[in-house]
Amino acid sequence: MELYPINLKLAGRRCAVVGGGTVAERKVKTLLAAGAAVSVFSPELIPGLHALEAAGQLTWVPQVYQSGDLHNFFLVFCATDKQDINRQAAETARAAGALVNIADAPDLSDFFVPAQVAHGDLLLTVSTGGGSPALARRLREEIAARYGPEYGHYLALIAKLRPEIRSRLGTAREREKFWRETIDHEALDLLKRGKFSEAEERIRHAACCTGP
Ligand SMILES: C[C@@]1(CC(=O)O)c2cc3[nH]c(cc4nc(cc5[nH]c(cc(n2)[C@H]1CCC(=O)O)[C@@](C)(CC(=O)O)[C@@H]5CCC(=O)O)C(CC(=O)O)=C4CCC(=O)O)c(CCC(=O)O)c3CC(=O)O
Ligand SMILES: NC(=O)C1=CN([C@@H]2O[C@H](COP(=O)(O)OP(=O)(O)OC[C@H]3O[C@@H](n4cnc5c(N)ncnc54)[C@H](O)[C@@H]3O)[C@@H](O)[C@H]2O)C=CC1
After folding, report:
1. Which of 113, 139, 172 finishes a domain?
2. Is 53 a residue whose pLDDT tops 70?
3. How many domains does the chain have?
4. Domain that holds residue 45
5. Rounded to an integer, what distance in angstroms lies between the CA atom of residue 145 and that of residue 152?
6. 162 and 89: one domain?
7. Does the pLDDT of residue 212 top 70, yes or no?
């Protein structure tokens, strides 16, 4: 299946999840992590979702989904255990302009949620195009074991130093060469051992040696 990968900015955007079970909870958690304003339509919530509601992190509409409910949402996830309800909710939401994800109908969905490993702004995702979520999960576990939190720290450090390097090295070609040579394992090893300032120093040092 051909898919176009994008990373959406969801901060403050209204997103809805229909259903309050295990699948709904997984979707809600990644939506909240992205800062979305989440509404959950379901007569019942599993304990994890109840806890989020009690903490004021989501809006719960405690009733079975009704066709008028799904206006003004950017993304809508149809995740009840009832095939016909999921389809009906998806139709209503799409007619109102939302992109829809239907938990039990990949063919009818506008998008899929990938498996993900996030460390700060570093986001590594896996898609199997709906072919095998279990494989996506397995690969996510392997990626998480290979790329630990030190990569998130490394990214934060590089992003912080980038404007400085940009002003120090005059041309795009010099900067490209610099970053290709500088992104190596020594700074990462330092970060893995918690030596943040040494890692930063290493990158700064590389910059003064390369400069014109
Ligand atoms: C199409 C898609 C739509 C969507 O939900 O966006 C979809 C659909 C379906 N999933 C099903 C089952 C399972 N889903 C998982 C897990 C995840 N599913 C996720 C995404 C997606 N699932 C989208 C495609 C993504 C892609 O392929 O790239 C992940 C990656 C992200 C997330 O949900 O947050 C998350 C991994 C999180 C992680 O651990 O990293 C597990 C594994 C487990 O739970 O251990 C199982 C059981 C094992 C198995 O079946 O493989 C079923 C059958 C239900 C049935 O049999 O009745 C359907 C419907 C169908 O296939 O028809
Ligand atoms: N896309 C994915 O990642 C996966 C999808 N699935 C599919 O997702 C579906 C849901 O799975 P689970 O969350 O495990 O089920 P679940 O049984 O834990 O949750 C179903 C939820 O839907 C709610 N619900 C039922 N009728 C409703 C209505 N008319 N309006 C609003 N809410 C209603 C129930 O109260 C319950 O909270 C299943 O049909 C399964 O085939 C299953 C595993 C993974």
Report:
1. 113
2. yes
3. 2
4. 1-113
5. 14
6. no
7. no
Task: Tell me: do 103 and 7 sit in the same domain.
Answer: yes
CATH assignment at residue 10: 3.40.50.720
Is the CB of 22 within 6 Å of ligand 2?
yes
Q: Which of 113, 142, 161 is the last residue of a domain?
A: 113
- Percent residues over pLDDT 90 in the chain: 75
Nearest residue by C-alpha to atom 18 in ligand 2: 21
Residue reference for tokens 């005059």? 170
Same domain, 182 and 78: no
Closest CA to 58 of 20, 98, 113: 20
pLDDT tens digits for range 60-75: 999 999 888 899 999 9
Burial state string for 181-197 with b = 16 or more CB within 10 A and e = fewer than 16: ebeeeebbebbbeeeee
144 found inside a domain: no
20 close to 44: Cβ distance less than 8 angstroms? yes
State residue 208's pLDDT score. Answer: 72
Q: Could you tell me if the ipTM is greater than 0.95?
A: yes
Q: Does one domain contain both 104 and 154?
A: no
Q: Average of pLDDT values for 1-14?
A: 96
In this structure, which amino acid lies at residue 96? A
Whose Cα sits closest to atom 29 in ligand 2?
64
Residue 8 lies in a domain: yes
The encoded tokens of residue 17 equal 């999840």
Note the Cα 110 to chain centre separation in Å: 17
Pick the atom of ligand 2 nearest to 133's CA: 3
Share of the chain above pLDDT 70, in %: 99
Backbone angles phi, psi at 70, to 5 degrees: -100, 50
